[in-house]
Amino acid sequence: MSLFKSSNPALRSSTFEKQNSFIDTSNSMTVEGTVGKIAILSLLVFCTAIFSWNQFMEAESFEGFRSYLIGGSIGGLLTALIVIFNPKSSPYLAPLYALLEGLVLGALSAMFEYSYPGIAVQAILLTFGVLFGMLFAFRSGLIKVTQQFRSMVISATFGIAIIYLISFVGSFFGFPIPMIHEASTFGIIFSLVVVAIAALNLVLDFDFIEKSAERGAPKYMEWYGAFGLMVTLIWLYLEILRLLSKLRER
């Protein structure tokens, strides 16, 4: 049943439970401390995103952003895997992950902005709107994290991951999954569903961080919790960007 604690692989309950043997009650994880770490990671993402954005806009060429996109994607993935399997590295590698992902987000945002002017600002505003909306719903009790809720969200998340994986592999053999990447009615509905699932993952992350702080996880787990939430937030932004591009194309 621990599988259903959070659909975010970075925020598994077993990860926090493993750290309990190292707990120092005078220096343990707090929600406030995690919020501060989230703010730091967000700032780092913003800084490198602005850099890669400017590089693309100055060159006005798709060739210029490829190195940031490919390098940031590979580096971010490897860094994320290390952090997930070694939470103690999160105070050092979570900021690096944020910097690398910022390069990717800036490049992708610039690419979409080139085709659909104004879309990046819209995506950013909607992302933070969803973030604070989900936080309000969680804190006010409008959305209660029950076992059934966790099971539903994680099952839907795994389903989306499988669809994306099949589509990615299929694209190399000439048979990608049709319609999900198109600006058709089905494609737009699919993106809306994915955005909704990503938003619900934020609620699971809030709940996981709060309960982990209550258990007295060690201080460095604030960075780990912030990293896990940042993973979901970046996913949400990319899906909103994809959705807006489909609506613009329509």
Strand count, sense and barrel status of the largest sheet are:
none
The structure class reads mainly alpha
General form: globular
Rg computed from alpha carbons, rounded to a whole number of angstroms: 18 Å
Q: Number of DSSP helices?
A: 8
Order of helices and strands: HHHHHHHH
Report the count of strand segments. 0
* Unreliable residue runs: 1-6
What is the terminal-to-terminal distance? 43 Å
Q: What kind of oligomer do you see? A: single chain
Please tell me the overall pLDDT: 86
Instruction: Work out the strand percent.
Output: under 5%
Measured as a percent range, the helix fraction is: over 70%
Provide a short characterization of the protein structure:
The chain is built from eight helices and no strands. It has helices at residues 13-19, 31-59, 66-85, 90-115, 119-140, 147-171, 185-215, 221-249.
Chart the SSEs and their pairings.
Elements: H1 13-19, H2 31-59, H3 66-85, H4 90-115, H5 119-140, H6 147-171, H7 185-215, H8 221-249
Helix pairs in contact: 2-4, 2-8, 3-4, 4-8, 5-7, 5-8, 6-7, 7-8
Care to describe what's here?
The chain is an all-alpha fold. About 75% of the residues lie in helices and about 0% in strands. The chain is built from 8 helices and no strands. The radius of gyration is 18 Å and the shape is globular. Residues about 1-5 have low confidence and may be disordered.
